[in-house]
Amino acid sequence: MGQPTIKDVAKLAGVSISTVSRVMNNSKPVSPEARQKVLDAIAKLDFKPNELARSLVMRKSNLVGVIVEDIGIEYMAQLIRGIEEIGRVYKYDILLQSSYGDENALNNSIDFLATKQVEGFIIITQNLSDEALLKLRETRIPFILLDKFHAYKNLTTVKVDYKKEQYNLTKYLFSQGNDNVLFIGDKADNVLNNAKIAGYREAIEELGKEEFIVKIDGITSNDGYNIGKEAIDVCKENGITAVSLLNDEVAIGFIDYCADNGIKVPDDISVAGFGDSSIASIYRPNLTTVAIPYYDIGAISIRALIKRIKKEDEILDKDWIMDCNIVARESSKKVG
C-alpha cells in the first residue's frame, strides 16, 4: 500500500479535503469536533504531508538562498556559519550558491534559487553591480546584502564601522608609547579603504601627531612582503616604531619581510593587522589585530531577513553597526 494522502485522511474523518487542509495549516476556523476527527485520522493513517507540495501551495518553503562570492574566503565561511546555525533555530534551512565573482554566475544563482521557492536571499559579496542589485529587486523576494567594499542608498545592512575601528586601533598603538605610527593601506578607492584611512587620520589629528601613509596595490601576504623595504625605509627615516596594516594577510607578509632582513617584531617594530583571521593566532609572533565578529554579523542578518519575510517589526530600519575589539598579541608591545 502506498503512502496515505490527504484524500485518505478526509475520507476516514468524514470531512472535506479543504477541512483537512485548514486543520493542517491552521488557516481558517474549524469546529472542535471536525478538528478532532481530522487529527485522529492523521494519527491512525500515520499521514505525513508532502512538504514540497505544501510549500508550492502555501508559497512557504522555509528556505533562504545564500549566495557568496567564494566560500574559500575565510570571513565568508564564518558569515555562513552564523546564518545557518541561527536560521535553524527559526526552522529555516539555507541553499548555498557561489558566484566566484562572475556576474553571470550570480544572476544564474538568483534565478535558480528563485525557482526553488526561497523566501529570502542573503548576498555575501565584496562588490555587487547595479545590474545585479536591480535583478535582486525585480524578484520581489526579501533580501539582505552584505557588501564589504560598497554602500548602497536605500539599503540597510549589518556592517562594521571601519573608520571607528581603525581610529581605535591607531589610538591603541600610540597608547603603547609609540611616537609615530605608519599606516599601510590599499590604493583601491572604495568604502572600506577610505574609511580606514579616515579613521587613522582622525586619530593622528586628535593626538597632534604626524601622518605617515603608504598605499599598496593588493591585499595579499605577498603584497605585504613586497612593500617591506619601502615601509621600513619610511620607518627608519621618521623614527616610526609601529605599523598598522590594512588586513592580517598583508601584516603577516610584512612580518616575513622583517624576519628575512634582521628586523625583530616587536622588539624593533610593532605590527598590527585587521580582521583576526585564523592565521593571526597561529603565526609567530601572534598578530595583534582587530577582531571582526563575522559569525554575529551572519546571525543578525538571518534574523533580520526572517523578520522581513514574516513582515514583522523591522530590526534593520537603519544600519546595524557591529562593535569589534582589539586583540593584543605578541606582534606589538609597550615602548619604553
Per-chain topology:
Blueprint: H1 6-13, H2 17-25, H3 32-45, H4 51-58, E1 63-68, H5 74-89, E2 93-98, H6 103-115, E3 120-125, H7 130-138, E4 143-147, E5 158-160, H8 162-175, E6 181-186, H9 191-207, E7 212-216, H10 221-226, H11 228-238, E8 242-245, H12 248-260, E9 270-272, E10 289-291, H13 294-309, E11 320-322, E12 325-327
Parallel strand pairs: 1-2, 1-3, 3-4, 5-11, 6-7, 6-8, 8-9
Antiparallel strand pairs: 10-12
How would you describe this structure to a colleague?
Helices cover 46% and strands 16% of the residues. By secondary structure, the chain is of the alpha/beta class. The strands form four sheets. Strands 2-1-3-4 form a four-stranded parallel β-sheet, sandwiched between helices. A four-stranded parallel β-sheet has the order 7-6-8-9, sandwiched between helices. α5 (74-89) crosses α13 (294-309) and α8 (162-175) packs parallel to α9. The longest helix is centred in the middle third of the chain and has 17 residues, at 191-207. The mean pLDDT is 90. Keywords: DNA-binding, Transcription, Transcription regulation. This is LacI family DNA-binding transcriptional regulator. It comes from Anaerococcus groningensis.
